[in-house]
Amino acid sequence: MKKKIVVPIFTGILIALLFIFAPSQTQVSAQDSEESIQSTQTKTITKTEVYGLNKPVKSSIPYNVAGWSGTLYLVNTQSTGDHILATYRGTVHCSGICGMVSELDADEQN
């Protein structure tokens, strides 16, 4: 009689443990995959800054727009007669959820 009671109780405990631990392992795997996808998101940004003739041109500038961040480095300067146009380029990385930003939007936000 004792064996008939112990087996269903033991089986019930095993099934309960499967329901408790199986979803948490799936959740951890999904989080790991999501982090690895986010950490590999990069894109190259080119941005032009306008400087006055008497203003120093920076060799690099920070970039932080819509979750994309990094450093842009000076690749070209051009004088218009009234101003200096400095072109910067660099690879930026996504930190978290990143939006799509056009070049015009990026210039307005920096």
Strand order of the largest sheet: 1-4-3-2
Question: Which descriptor suits the 3D outline?
Answer: rod-shaped
Report Rg. Answer: 28 Å
Strand content: 35-45%
Proportion in helices: 40-55%
- The total of helices stands at 2
Structural class: alpha+beta
End-to-end separation = 78 Å
Number of beta strands: 4
List the secondary-structure elements in sequence, H or E. HEEEEH
Describe this structure in words.
- It is built from two helices and four strands.
- A hairpin with a 2-residue loop joins β2 and β3.
- A four-stranded antiparallel beta sheet has the order 1-4-3-2.
- By secondary structure, it is α+β, with helices and mostly antiparallel strands.
List the helices and strands and how they pair.
Blueprint: H1 2-39, E1 42-52, E2 60-65, E3 68-79, E4 83-94, H2 103-109
Antiparallel strand pairs: 1-4, 2-3, 3-4
Compact description:
It is built from two helices and four strands, in the order H-E-E-E-E-H.
Key words describing this protein structure:
alpha+beta, rod-shaped, 110 residues, four-stranded antiparallel sheet
